Write the C-alpha cells for this entry.
Amino acid sequence: MASQVSERGQITIDQSIRKQLGIQPGMIAYQRVTNGRLEVIFLPAPHRRSLSGVFYRQGEGVKVATGDDLEEAVMEAVADELAQVEGKRA
C-alpha cells in the first residue's frame, strides 16, 4: 500500500490497516525515528479524569513540571514498552 504525501506532510492510513490495528478517532499517534525509519505507535485517547497527585511519594521532588511533560514521559514509556514486547516476539 502506498500513499502520496500531501503538501502539509500528511498521509492517509488505509482503512484495512486502521481496522487491523484498531486505530480509532481521537487516539494519539506517537511518532519517532528508529534506525532511520518512521515508527508510529497509537495510544488511547487521553481521558479527562484528574490523576493529580497519584504518583506523589512523601519526600520526593516533582518529576515533571507540566501536563505536557507528563504526557510526553508517559508516551515514551508506553512506546518503549511496546517496542520491548515486539522485540520479544521476533
